[in-house]
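EI: anyone free to look at a 178-residue chain?
SC: sure, send it
EI:
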Amino acid sequence: MISCSYQNSYDEYRKLTDFHIFHVRLLPQVCCCAVLLLAAIVLFVLAGLDLTEWYWGVALTLMAILLPFANAVMARSRIRQLEKREPEYENQINRYAFDENGLTVTIKEGKRQTVSSYGYQELIIYETKTHFHLYVNQMNAYILPKSCLKEAEITALIGYFKAGAGKNFKGKKHGNEL
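SC: here you go
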């Protein structure tokens, strides 16, 4: 069994949000940008000398280019609002317990304590250079900085993740970094 603790941090939450926007949700964003660019191209082709279609084409092109960055700015804004509303977030302590069957997370918030258990097949796990992001659904994830673990524990965790999560473990593959 591998156990570790992590105290929530808004800085780590920002890193997770950036990872989510620019890695996990990248394909839907690229598709949306492609549709906007395609619509702009259609407008440019159909426009001829009509300036209205040119303006709309330029607007769609700018929207396609700025969409991922706008998502990141809005996410940062939501995090700043959350910091003001919930300053106690950084006082929460997450205790993770891993074994070959799955993950048990104990969240301690003051005197209140919540325990959740997950089998690895229920999770989508992303490994980066510095973190494991343990997604329990499309929008909720636990943050596990590798700095909370020893090198041998990281190796053992990767073994658990590969065996239990299978294709739901998206980590470093032969030197390719996420």
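EI: Confidence is low (pLDDT under 50) at residues 174-178.
SC: 👍
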